[in-house]
Structure formats: C-alpha cells, structure tokens
Amino acid sequence: MNDEPYKLREIFNREMAGTHEVLYIADKLVQVFLPELYAHLEKQTVHTSMFSTQWLMTIYTSTFPFDLVTRVWDLFLSEGWKIVYKTFIALLVHAREDGDLINKNMEEILSYLRHFQSKVDGEKIMTSASKIPLKHRHIQKYASEFRKLMEGGEMHVHEVIQRFLTFDDSTIASANSQLKKVHRFIRLKKQSDVSVQDFSPKMVPVAFEAKLAVMISDALSPEECAELIQRAKDQSYDDVLIRQDGMKASQHVAKCSRAIVKDFDLAEELFQRIMDALENIPELAEKFVDAPWMKKKVDTPLRATGVNDNLHFLKFGVGESIAPLRDSTVTRGNETSCVTMHVYLNDNFKGGVTSFKGDRRYFDIKPKMGSILIFDQDLRHEECEVTKGKRYFMRTDVMYSPRPVIESTAQ
Fold first, then answer.
1. How many Å apart are CA 191 and CA 202, to the nearest integer?
2. What is the mean pLDDT of the chain?
3. Cα–Cα distance list, 371 to 141, 174, 287, 350, 396 (Å)
4. Least confident among 65-79, 140-154, 316-330
5. DSSP, residue by residue, 62-93
6. Average pLDDT, stretch 110-122?
C-alpha cells in the first residue's frame, strides 16, 4: 500500500507531503469541475481543506455510511486514488443541491458539511461518482504541478494551501469553457436514446452456452463516429495481409487496413458509456463486470477495470475480410482481457457483417453506426467480406483484474 497507485505512507510521514498533495489536487478538481461552488466557497472564506482533510485522509471511513465506504475501498484497492477524488466531487455535487450551499454563509456551509456525512445514500453517491468525467491525466497534472512548486522552492507546504485563484465572473466562464474541453466527445445524445440488445441466448446454438454478446445501439453519435474515422485517417492506415502456408495468392486469413491509436481518455470514455448503458440492467451489468465464465479458468474472482487504450481502427474495402478466429488474450500487469469490444463507425456499405461461428451454426450481427458490440473473447467470429463501399470500425479489449477482497472481523 506504500507504492503506486496508493502511496499511503507519504500521507502519514513526518512531513505529510502526501497529505498536502492530496488536498492540493482535491482543491484544484473542485475548481475545475464545480467552479461556481468553488467561487462561493472562496467568497465565504471556506477553503476546501476545512472539510476535505477528514474525508480524504481517512478515505471516508471517519463518518460516512458503511455502504459508501466499502464501495469506495473496493475500487480504491483496484485503481487507486481516482475513485476517492470522484467520490469527493460527487459528495459536493450532492451537498450543493441538497444543502443549497450556494446560498449559505460560512457558518451554515461548515455546519451542513459536518452533519450531512452520516446521512448520504452510498449507492446514489457512487452512481454519481461513476459519471464524473475525471481522468488520470487530470490527477497527474495537478500532482506534477504540486511537486514542481515544492521542488522549485517557490513555496513551502503550508503556503501551497493558500495559493489558489480568486474567482470573478470572467474566471468562472473560463473554467466552464475549459471543463467542456475535458472530453474529446460532447454527449450529443441523451442516455434514453441508447438501447441494449442481449444476444447471449443466441449464442447457445452456436457455442452451446449463453456466452456474453451484447450490442449497445446509438452509444456514439454520427458526429463522433465521423470524428473517429477522420482521426484514424490522420494517423494513417497500414495494410494488413495474413496468409497461412499453402494458401493461394487470392486467399487470406485477414486482409484490411489498420491504424493503431493509443488514447487512455478515449478508452475510459468508451468504458463509461458501456457502464452507463448497462446501469439499468443489473443482471447484464453484473455479467459484464464480473466475467463469471472465467471462474473455470482462474482462481481469483475478476472485475472489469477498463478498456485497453491500444485502439485498433480497421478499414475494409471491397473483397476484404478477416477469417473466423478467436481473439488472443492481452495481459498488462495484473490485468487480462476477457471481452472484445467493437465500435461500429459506419454502416453505408454492403456485406461486412460480424458472424459468430459454431461447428454447424452461425449468428450474424449487422454493424450499425454508433453501436458498441461486446462479447466473450472465446467466441469464434468472422468479419465477413465487404461487397460494396468501405467499412470502418474500432476494435479493442475490456480488461479485468483480480477483485479485491475486503475482510471484516466480527467484534
């Protein structure tokens, strides 16, 4: 617990540099994500450290409900401090709305924040936290900023806490403008526009069991799909041609073009859209998150942690295809891939279906622009030949890591 991504020892050492770094990052995140509330707190001379110290240094174990604490710690042990900061922002969003903090003075604000902690709904807060568009790069940015200030001798630890922007109307407008740039994608569709089709039962005749296969329609807007296609074109495609020994010149295992883009933020955004789409389908969400079929292969329960940020953009012209195959497992540290993800970027072509293959049966899925298909990597599938036009889609993996086990001892 003393190394990345936890680094708890630095919080409690003599200098408490880790403590001040955490408080510095938290303050900056409030400034970015809740600029109007931040401005009001500054006006009322309420510094975020007045309440964040107890929350963050104990990682909410001090006075918050047990259901919130266990959920935060479950994710903290898996991914580190990001969930702690996301929960911090979600709690302030709740406090702003429920406690009407914008219209309270200093004494009223601090009094409310002292008493509301034990009454929050853990499930509601964690749902809100999961939708906060916080990325690792935001945390890393402010951590680096803090360390440079300290290493450069520009200020001492106690001075860091005092050095923050004074907000006026123009500063708030600027912060709001910057917040809109946090995502490459602007959500152009309401969540209600997204629909989910569970094809798992259709896999029984093909694979002899209901393996995970789910289509999330309208997960991306047409504008977002066009942007991704253009981004891959800017990266430039390389030809992919794979033949097995003995094949004729006209035969191939795979023939298409590919551009590989590494983008952590985009991967996180796509993972979040899957989670949002499955939010109201608990059984399907649990199946996706827990990968129960892997219990036969691994001893430790798994949990989905995100999407592999190596994004493969594929382009198929007429006559191009990928023969039936099972996707290889990707490993990264303690993470392993269990699920393949396709993001279909266009549908103005003919042919080019994704076909799941069994010994005698098959099941075809016709690509639909803006849809995300997720499926068990053990499913044998084919990208069928395009007969007219050009087909574009993006392929990557959903990564899983061992699920942390929190032990409790009865007193």
1. 26
2. 81
3. 33, 34, 19, 17, 14
4. 140-154
5. TTS-HHHHHHHHHHHHHH-THHHHHHHHHHHH
6. 84
Mean pLDDT computed over 126-148: 84
The pair of three-digit structure tokens given for residue 316, joined into one six-digit string: 């198929």
| 112 HSE (CA, 13 A, CB side) | 19
- Under a CB-based contact definition with an 8 Å cutoff, are residues 32 and 138 in contact? yes
Token code pair at residue 94: 């709740």
State the Cα–Cα distance between residues 352 and 388, nearest whole angstrom. 9
Check: CB of residue 393 under 8 Å from CB of residue 344: yes
Q: Which whole number is the average pLDDT over 295-312? A: 87
Q: What is the dihedral of CA 205, 208, 209, 211, to 10 degrees?
A: -70
Is residue 96 within 8 Å of residue 39, measured between CB atoms?
no
- Phi, psi at 302, each rounded to 5°: -110, 165
According to DSSP, the β-strands at 372-376 and 213-217 are: antiparallel
Q: Identify the residue whose tokens are 């990707």.
A: 330
Dihedral (C-alpha) 194, 200, 206, 207: value to the nearest 10 degrees?
130
Reduced to 3 DSSP states, what percent helix, strand and coil does the chain have, rounded to the nearest 5? 45, 20, 35
Q: How far apart are CA 316 and CA 199, in angstroms?
A: 25
